[in-house]
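Could you show me just one protein sequence together with its fold in token form as a worked example?
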Amino acid sequence: MPGYRKQRVGTRVLAMILLIIVVLILGFIWLDFLGFIDLKNFMSPVFRLLNIPVRTGKSIPVTVPALLDEERFAKQFEALELQKQQLAETERVLKEKENMLLAREQELNDKDKKLQEQQISLNNQFKAYENRKANIEQNARYLTGMPPKEAVNILLSMDDELVIDILRMVDALAASSGENSIVPYWMSLMPAERSAAIQRKMAIKSESE
């Protein structure tokens, strides 16, 4: 019986020692996992073999996750700021192009307006010329049908430019109808000085044309 008791006591002591060892190992493992301590590198293969998570290297402060989040947020904020600057630059370039297009459009509108005004002016001038030409032709026909002396008296009351236009129209109408022009006879009935001045201006006008 005494031998049996000694065996039981020895077994209990061994079990207590093993239990203490297991508790110590688990305690170290837990403290290492929490980051308060760092187990030696040579024990890492054993822990990996037992599939137990172990921290290696230096212990990491508890605040590291917050620092990582802060760093990630800082990078995201930096990326957003860069994107904001790029958008602002793009908006500025588009605004400049829009202003250039508006200025070009205004320039084209001004040119178009100027061309329209010139066209209207030319049309008015052409109409005025046509109306004057029609009036001159009408006067030429009217004077040609009158007695020569009366026709000359009317011509003498006009300015030289109008007289020249009427005389040239009379010549043109006579040539188109195959008749002799009455203009030389009218010129002979005018005072010599007036007749010479009109003939001189007619010659100059013909040369300029």
In short: Residues 56-64 have pLDDT under 50 and may be disordered. DSSP finds seven helices and no strands in the chain. The chain has two domains: 2-60, 101-208.
